[in-house]
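seq as requested:
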Amino acid sequence: MMVERVRAGVAAREVPADTDAAAFLIGIGDVALSTIGRATSAVVRAGRGPYDAVVASRGVLDQPILQWATAPARRLGAAVAGRVEETVVRGRAVAQLARTDAIAFLDAESETALAWVREQVLPPIIDDLVADPKVRALVVEQAHGALTDTAREVQRRSVSADARIEAGVRRLLGRDNSAHVRR
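C-alpha coordinates:
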Protein backbone atom coordinates (compact mmCIF):
# COMPACT_ATOMS: atom_id res chain seq x y z
CA MET A 1 0.00 0.00 0.00
CA MET A 2 2.79 2.47 0.86
CA VAL A 3 4.66 1.51 -2.29
CA GLU A 4 1.57 2.31 -4.33
CA ARG A 5 1.37 5.72 -2.65
CA VAL A 6 5.04 6.35 -3.42
CA ARG A 7 4.46 5.28 -7.02
CA ALA A 8 1.44 7.60 -7.25
CA GLY A 9 3.51 10.42 -5.74
CA VAL A 10 6.29 9.85 -8.26
CA ALA A 11 3.79 9.83 -11.10
CA ALA A 12 2.36 13.11 -9.81
CA ARG A 13 5.90 14.50 -9.29
CA GLU A 14 5.32 14.94 -5.54
CA VAL A 15 8.33 12.82 -4.54
CA PRO A 16 11.70 13.51 -6.17
CA ALA A 17 12.24 10.24 -8.09
CA ASP A 18 15.74 11.16 -9.24
CA THR A 19 17.34 10.69 -5.81
CA ASP A 20 19.04 7.42 -4.87
CA ALA A 21 16.89 6.96 -1.77
CA ALA A 22 13.62 7.39 -3.66
CA ALA A 23 14.81 5.06 -6.42
CA PHE A 24 15.86 2.46 -3.83
CA LEU A 25 12.49 2.57 -2.10
CA ILE A 26 10.61 2.35 -5.36
CA GLY A 27 12.82 -0.56 -6.42
CA ILE A 28 12.16 -2.45 -3.17
CA GLY A 29 8.44 -1.95 -3.57
CA ASP A 30 8.49 -3.01 -7.17
CA VAL A 31 10.42 -6.21 -6.38
CA ALA A 32 7.99 -7.05 -3.57
CA LEU A 33 4.93 -6.48 -5.73
CA SER A 34 6.29 -8.41 -8.67
CA THR A 35 7.27 -11.34 -6.40
CA ILE A 36 3.79 -11.47 -4.90
CA GLY A 37 2.31 -11.27 -8.41
CA ARG A 38 4.48 -14.16 -9.67
CA ALA A 39 3.60 -16.31 -6.67
CA THR A 40 -0.10 -15.66 -7.09
CA SER A 41 0.09 -16.37 -10.82
CA ALA A 42 1.89 -19.67 -10.20
CA VAL A 43 -0.85 -20.80 -7.82
CA VAL A 44 -3.58 -19.76 -10.25
CA ARG A 45 -1.82 -21.48 -13.16
CA ALA A 46 -1.60 -24.65 -11.12
CA GLY A 47 -5.31 -25.05 -11.65
CA ARG A 48 -6.74 -23.36 -8.63
CA GLY A 49 -9.07 -20.38 -8.83
CA PRO A 50 -8.14 -17.03 -7.31
CA TYR A 51 -10.32 -17.65 -4.28
CA ASP A 52 -8.74 -21.04 -3.62
CA ALA A 53 -5.29 -19.47 -4.00
CA VAL A 54 -6.03 -16.83 -1.36
CA VAL A 55 -7.56 -19.36 1.00
CA ALA A 56 -4.62 -21.72 0.52
CA SER A 57 -2.03 -19.03 1.08
CA ARG A 58 -3.79 -17.85 4.23
CA GLY A 59 -3.84 -21.34 5.55
CA VAL A 60 -0.14 -21.72 4.95
CA LEU A 61 0.79 -18.30 6.30
CA ASP A 62 -1.28 -18.80 9.45
CA GLN A 63 0.91 -21.70 10.55
CA PRO A 64 2.79 -20.73 13.72
CA ILE A 65 6.17 -21.58 12.30
CA LEU A 66 5.60 -19.40 9.22
CA GLN A 67 4.28 -16.55 11.31
CA TRP A 68 7.43 -16.75 13.41
CA ALA A 69 9.62 -16.90 10.31
CA THR A 70 7.89 -14.04 8.52
CA ALA A 71 7.57 -11.77 11.59
CA PRO A 72 10.94 -10.02 11.03
CA ALA A 73 10.03 -9.36 7.40
CA ARG A 74 6.66 -7.96 8.45
CA ARG A 75 8.29 -5.73 11.07
CA LEU A 76 10.83 -4.59 8.51
CA GLY A 77 8.04 -3.83 6.04
CA ALA A 78 6.20 -1.79 8.66
CA ALA A 79 9.40 0.05 9.58
CA VAL A 80 10.17 0.79 5.92
CA ALA A 81 6.61 1.98 5.40
CA GLY A 82 6.95 4.29 8.40
CA ARG A 83 10.24 5.68 7.12
CA VAL A 84 8.78 6.19 3.67
CA GLU A 85 5.86 8.10 5.18
CA GLU A 86 8.25 10.24 7.24
CA THR A 87 10.35 10.87 4.16
CA VAL A 88 7.32 11.95 2.15
CA VAL A 89 6.20 14.33 4.92
CA ARG A 90 9.70 15.78 5.20
CA GLY A 91 9.95 16.13 1.42
CA ARG A 92 6.69 18.07 1.32
CA ALA A 93 7.91 20.36 4.12
CA VAL A 94 11.18 21.00 2.30
CA ALA A 95 9.32 21.70 -0.95
CA GLN A 96 7.03 24.19 0.82
CA LEU A 97 10.03 25.92 2.39
CA ALA A 98 11.71 26.09 -1.01
CA ARG A 99 8.57 27.64 -2.53
CA THR A 100 8.47 30.24 0.26
CA ASP A 101 12.14 31.06 -0.24
CA ALA A 102 11.68 31.30 -4.00
CA ILE A 103 8.76 33.70 -3.63
CA ALA A 104 10.73 35.88 -1.19
CA PHE A 105 13.70 35.88 -3.59
CA LEU A 106 11.50 36.86 -6.54
CA ASP A 107 9.86 39.64 -4.53
CA ALA A 108 13.25 41.05 -3.54
CA GLU A 109 14.58 40.81 -7.09
CA SER A 110 11.44 42.49 -8.43
CA GLU A 111 11.94 45.41 -6.06
CA THR A 112 15.59 45.66 -7.09
CA ALA A 113 14.63 45.61 -10.77
CA LEU A 114 11.96 48.28 -10.28
CA ALA A 115 14.40 50.50 -8.40
CA TRP A 116 16.90 50.11 -11.26
CA VAL A 117 14.22 51.06 -13.79
CA ARG A 118 13.25 54.13 -11.76
CA GLU A 119 16.85 55.27 -11.36
CA GLN A 120 18.49 54.24 -14.64
CA VAL A 121 15.82 53.82 -17.31
CA LEU A 122 13.09 56.39 -16.69
CA PRO A 123 15.27 59.55 -16.42
CA PRO A 124 16.77 59.19 -19.93
CA ILE A 125 13.33 58.41 -21.38
CA ILE A 126 11.84 61.48 -19.71
CA ASP A 127 14.76 63.62 -20.92
CA ASP A 128 14.21 62.35 -24.48
CA LEU A 129 10.49 63.11 -24.29
CA VAL A 130 11.09 66.62 -22.97
CA ALA A 131 13.60 67.37 -25.74
CA ASP A 132 11.38 65.96 -28.53
CA PRO A 133 9.77 68.79 -30.61
CA LYS A 134 6.69 66.66 -31.33
CA VAL A 135 6.06 66.22 -27.61
CA ARG A 136 6.55 69.94 -27.02
CA ALA A 137 4.07 70.75 -29.80
CA LEU A 138 1.58 68.32 -28.28
CA VAL A 139 1.97 69.92 -24.84
CA VAL A 140 1.52 73.43 -26.30
CA GLU A 141 -1.60 72.28 -28.17
CA GLN A 142 -3.02 70.72 -25.01
CA ALA A 143 -2.24 73.84 -22.98
CA HIS A 144 -3.82 76.07 -25.67
CA GLY A 145 -6.95 73.91 -25.64
CA ALA A 146 -7.16 74.07 -21.86
CA LEU A 147 -6.70 77.86 -21.85
CA THR A 148 -9.35 78.28 -24.55
CA ASP A 149 -11.83 76.18 -22.57
CA THR A 150 -11.06 78.20 -19.42
CA ALA A 151 -11.49 81.52 -21.25
CA ARG A 152 -14.89 80.41 -22.60
CA GLU A 153 -16.03 79.38 -19.15
CA VAL A 154 -14.85 82.70 -17.64
CA GLN A 155 -16.65 84.61 -20.41
CA ARG A 156 -19.88 82.64 -19.89
CA ARG A 157 -19.81 83.20 -16.16
CA SER A 158 -18.91 86.89 -16.47
CA VAL A 159 -21.82 87.50 -18.87
CA SER A 160 -24.15 85.77 -16.46
CA ALA A 161 -22.73 87.74 -13.52
CA ASP A 162 -22.96 91.01 -15.49
CA ALA A 163 -26.62 90.35 -16.23
CA ARG A 164 -27.37 89.66 -12.56
CA ILE A 165 -25.51 92.78 -11.41
CA GLU A 166 -27.32 94.92 -13.96
CA ALA A 167 -30.69 93.49 -12.90
CA GLY A 168 -29.83 94.15 -9.24
CA VAL A 169 -28.81 97.76 -9.94
CA ARG A 170 -32.05 98.37 -11.85
CA ARG A 171 -34.12 96.99 -9.02
CA LEU A 172 -32.17 99.12 -6.59
CA LEU A 173 -32.76 102.26 -8.62
CA GLY A 174 -36.38 101.33 -9.12
CA ARG A 175 -36.17 100.85 -12.81
CA ASP A 176 -37.94 97.90 -14.21
CA ASN A 177 -36.54 96.15 -17.23
CA SER A 178 -39.89 96.44 -19.03
CA ALA A 179 -40.00 100.23 -18.43
CA HIS A 180 -36.51 100.62 -19.82
CA VAL A 181 -37.53 98.76 -22.93
CA ARG A 182 -40.72 100.93 -23.42
CA ARG A 183 -38.79 104.15 -23.71
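The two ends are 114 Å apart (CA to CA).
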